[in-house]
Amino acid sequence: MSASTNEVGKRILIVDDSRAIQAIIRRVLECEELGQLDFQTANDGAEALDKVQAFKPDLVLSDWHMPGVSGIELLQALRQTGHNDVAVGFVTTDRASECQAQARSNGALFVLNKPFDNQALRDAVALGLGRSTLSSAALALGSSKPKPMPASAQAQALDHPAIESLAQAQQALFAHLGMRGFDLIRADSREAFVQKSPQLIALYGSAGRKGVYAVGLLDFPACWMLGGLAAGCSQQEMQSTREAGKPSTKQIEQATRFMRAMGPLLKKRSPSDEPSLNTARLSSQPLDRLASLTENNAGRTDLHLRIHALGVHGEARLSFMLAV
Fold first, then answer.
1. The model's pTM
2. What is the domain class of 142-322 according to CATH?
3. C-alpha to C-alpha distance for 313 and 266, rounded to whole angstroms
4. Which of 4, 7, 145, 189 is 20 to 30 A distant from 171 in Cα terms?
5. Which of 61, 58, 69 is CA-nearest to residue 24?
6. Is pLDDT above 60 for 154?
């Protein structure tokens, strides 16, 4: 295990009926970039429920199909027993769309398929634990202070959007909100999209590619407006969330649902690409490598959102960037 004297050890519960898979996952996660971690394992959902009480994990990594209590039943039981703060991600061989839909509707952070890419698992866990850094391999940026792109290369990247169809983005937003009381336009600004206030960071993958395919960002106003309106929050809830400066759990869940819908709209760099959301996490800490990605990317789209509907008035920003 990698020890870090600067970070409090996070607790991870690995749930899988294969002890070999338990060991593989633990070995992959014992790395410097994730810092100090404490692990426990369980062989099925029932054993995991017993261990959650005493171990109090920050993140549960679970298989889907297990004897007795399955992974989805474990997640449902955790939510029904008040363990709403425990993040849950799935590592499974099941690739069915029904599996993905059930995981999303029950609040899972991510679903990764076996055999998984080691770096993809580390990236998903990093966001699940609220770590303040993304790996260099994940964003293909090299060191934490990558060499700047030549001006000509930066100009070329800016000419290639991450989302080519604004109309499709508008349609996805309409489907998410179920109303037309918004304006969504391309933003001219290319300034760094890194801030101290909470922002939702979404990591996208693509079939046949290793590592992160793209990164999506929602600023705080986007989270509470998109999430709150889709969740049916009252005006009082919306106001209190805005004053608190942090989206509620259900607002984050609905904002994540929107970011998932944006995955298929990301530009395909090859005919075989199928971009889809791997994981999304709210973060309040500026990320050095994310800052560099705003300049060093394979394509970028910034969007400006204005909403004036149902007593909600505000402006927000969305950004999507293709990893190099």
1. 0.55
2. alpha beta
3. 28
4. 189
5. 61
6. no
